[in-house]
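Kindly go through one protein, given below as sequence and C-alpha cells. The question is how this chain folds according to its C-alpha cells.

***
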Amino acid sequence: MKIDLSPVDALLNDAIRRRCPAAQLEIRLNGKMIGSRAYGWLDPETRQQPTQRETQFDLASVTKLFVVTAFMTLVEAGVVALDQPVYTVLPAFTGLRPIQPYENPLQLGDLVQVTDAVGTIDASTITFRHLLTHTSGLPAWRPLFRQADATAARQMALSTFFSSPTGAHIVYSDIGLILIGLAVEQLTGSVLADAVQQRVTDPLGLHQTRYHPLGNASINQNNSAPTEFCQWRQRRIVGEVHDENAARLGGVAGHAGLFSTAIDVATFGQMFLDGGQPLLRPETVQEMTRLQAEDGDIRRGLGFALWSPDPEASGNPFSQRAFGHTGFTGTTLWIDPARELVVALLTNDVYYGRAGREIGALRVAVHRAVVEIIDRLLV
C-alpha cells in the first residue's frame, strides 16, 4: 500500500531547515511499516553527512520505557512486586526526609517549589508503584553530575529529600527512575546495560539499541546524531549520553543513556500492541497502560505517559487509549491501540541548545498529520 506522507515530510524538512538538524521517523499500522524516513544532516554546518535510517539517536528519557519493561519482567517472574517498598531492595532508601524545593535543571541557581506543605516523608513507605507512576514525591531532578564520581552520584539519588507529600502530586522524576535502574541491577545481579540487553533488546532483536558506557572505545561516533555543546564537559556531545547526570553515572542509568534508531524504537512499541509478546503477558501490558495516577491534565500509567486533554501534549492527537513517552533530546514514542498505530520520532533538536526550542509544537504537528493520514485510510 502506497501512502502519501508528504504532509509529514514537509513538516520535518521545514524543521530541519529551521532548528532541528537530524531526524528519523518510523510509522507502523496494523503491525506493518508504512513509513520509514531519515531527514537532515549529522554535520549541519557542512551538510556532508546525511542522516541514515541506521543513525543512532540519544533516546534521553525514552530510555525509561526500556528500563521499566526490564523491571516488569522481574515482577512477572515474582522476583519483586509493584507495591513492595523500595527499601527492601535498596536498603539505603529509608529514613525520615524533609520536603523542600529542588534545584531547577533548566535554570541552575533557581529552585522549584512543588508544594507549600512542610514536614518529613518516611522513605521506607515508598513503593515501586510510586516510582513508576511518579507519585512518590521525590524531586524531578538533583545535580548528581556535581558529585565526584558515580558512587557518590548514586548515593545522592538514594539519600535525596522529597519535593512533595507522597501521592499528592505527579512530579515526573528522573530520580525515581534512577532508583528503578539500581533496583534492576540489585535484583538481577547484572549491570543495567546487560540486564536491559538480556531482558528487552536481545529478545526483540533490537541490535541498534544499546547504552554507550563512557570510555567504551568500541562506540561508533561516526553514525551518531550529535547533541548540544555541553558547558559542563566543554565539548560537542557525539555518541555519548547528553544527560549530565547519566554521564556522571557512567553513561548507563535508569532515566537516560540508551541510543537507538526509529526502526528499533517502533519495534519496541509494537511489542505493546502485540500483547507484550515475547517479553510480557497481556495483563502486564494492561497494567502498565491503564490510568494509575492523575494530576490535572497529567495522566500516568506505569512508566508510560497516557493521553492528555492538553492540546499541547505530544500524545493529544492520538486516541484517548494512547500511551507513550518523550525524551529531552527530542525523541518520542507513541502507541495508539485504537488505530493499531506506532509512531517513533527521533530528533536531536537539542543540538543548538536548550533555549527557544520548538520540539513540543513539532511533535504535536507531526502526530496530528500522521493521524489525519491514517484516519483517511481507515474511512
